[in-house]
Design brief:
Shape: globular
Radius of gyration: 19 Å
Mean pLDDT: 92
Order of helices and strands: HEHEHHEEHHEHEHEHHHH
Distance between the termini: 40 Å
Bound molecules: adenosine-5'-triphosphate, magnesium ion
Oligomer: single chain
Structural class: alpha/beta
Low-confidence stretches: 1-13
Helix content: 40-55%
């Protein structure tokens, strides 16, 4: 991979021009900019599905860390985990062994979401509707059900109405974490949302598979959810030292100038370590580049106009 590295001491440049120095300067600026910042609440609840059928691109990391950053910004946020792997539930420190009432019961047995939602420990304003391994069967069980694509949409709509009549705070953001497939669980998530956030890993094959995802979204729009828009694209695992990452980022920006966040998420060991402590990177290491980047991305989400 050494051939992908840019020369770290560019000709004619001083130390200030090295990627490391730029990174430090950016983190410093972010820390000051984000300190104590309260995020503006949207006019209505924004339901955003985080999807990409490609595995390991940062869907779950993006869901939980953006959600935690929004909650830290003073907003009320719900993470809905519809991935049988339950990685988002794990990262949020939520119990999700097979007996825990979960999105499986919501989708297959019509249990109200309010009954499965758990508060995220030590994170005010953040809630999670967990996934259990049972969900892996839901993909098949849903096939024969009435309005099988609309189960999650109905559940979220009922939840919002129920919270309102119970006098509970209105949810500002609902973020749905998807499995790496385009099966019925992902379809449910895309029918339930108004917006899609696509995390893209800044690597060579990044754009491969994106066409398939966009075609599927277009089909869903025509048949099941005319309001759906790809509102956000976030570059993840971005290594500023490689030319390749910069090229991929430029490619993505050329194709999706409106949607691509100016914030990129750096490759960071802290981001990958946090889940094993049942934490988001925001509590695990709040001062790290990864935590600051996710807070900057969440801030960008709140100031970009909702579709
Ligand atoms: N910015 C990052 N820097 C370093 N490691 C990261 C970063 N983002 C995610 N990872 C790690 O990469 C792996 C994949 O990330 P993640 O689970 O968020 O992707 P995913 O798209 O949800 O995966 P899946 O398709 O399996 O659901 C995880 O081990 C995660 O900890
Ligand atoms: Mg995941």
């Amino acid at each position: 991979m050494a051939d992908q590295r840019e020369d770290s001491a560019p000709a004619g440049g001083g130390l200030d021009d090295t990627p490391l120095m730029r990174e430090l300067a950016r983190d410093h600026a972010r820390r000051r900019e984000l300190e104590g910042l309260e995020f503006a609440a949207p006019e209505a609840t924004r339901v955003i599905t985080v999807a990409n059928q490609k595995g390991g691109v940062g869907k779950t990391s993006t869901t939980v860390n953006v959600a935690a950053a929004l909650a830290m910004g003073g907003l009320d946020v719900l993470v809905v985990d519809v991935d049988p792997q339950g990685n988002a539930s794990t990262a949020l420190g939520i119990d999700h062994h097979a007996d825990v009432p979960s999105m499986y019961e919501v989708l297959v047995e019509s249990t109200p979401m309010q009954e499965v939602i758990q508060p995220v420990p030590e994170m005010e304003g953040l809630l999670c509707a967990p996934a259990t391994i049972n969900l892996s069967g839901a993909e098949i069980e849903l096939v024969s059900m009435v309005a099988r694509e609309n189960r999650l949409r109905g559940a979220i709509r009922d939840l919002l109405a129920e919270r309102e009549s119970a006098g509970l705070p209105r949810l500002d953001y609902v973020l749905v974490d998807c499995p790496p497939s385009l099966g019925l669980l992902t379809v449910n998530a895309l029918v339930a949302a108004r917006e899609v956030l696509i995390p893209i890993q800044a690597e060579y094959y990044a754009l491969e598979g994106l066409t398939l995802l966009l075609n599927n979204i277009e089909l869903l729009r025509q048949h099941l959810n005319p309001e759906l828009v790809v509102s956000s694209i976030l570059l993840t695992m971005y290594d500023a030292r490689t030319r390749l990452a910069a090229q991929v980022a430029q490619d993505v920006r050329d194709h999706f100038p409106e949607q691509t966040f100016s914030t990129t998420i750096p490759r960071s060991v802290r981001i990958s370590e946090a889940p094993s402590y049942g934490q988001t990177v925001l509590t695990y290491d709040p001062g790290s580049s990864g935590a600051l980047a996710y807070r900057a991305a969440a801030h960008e989400l709140t100031i970009r106009p909702a579709p």
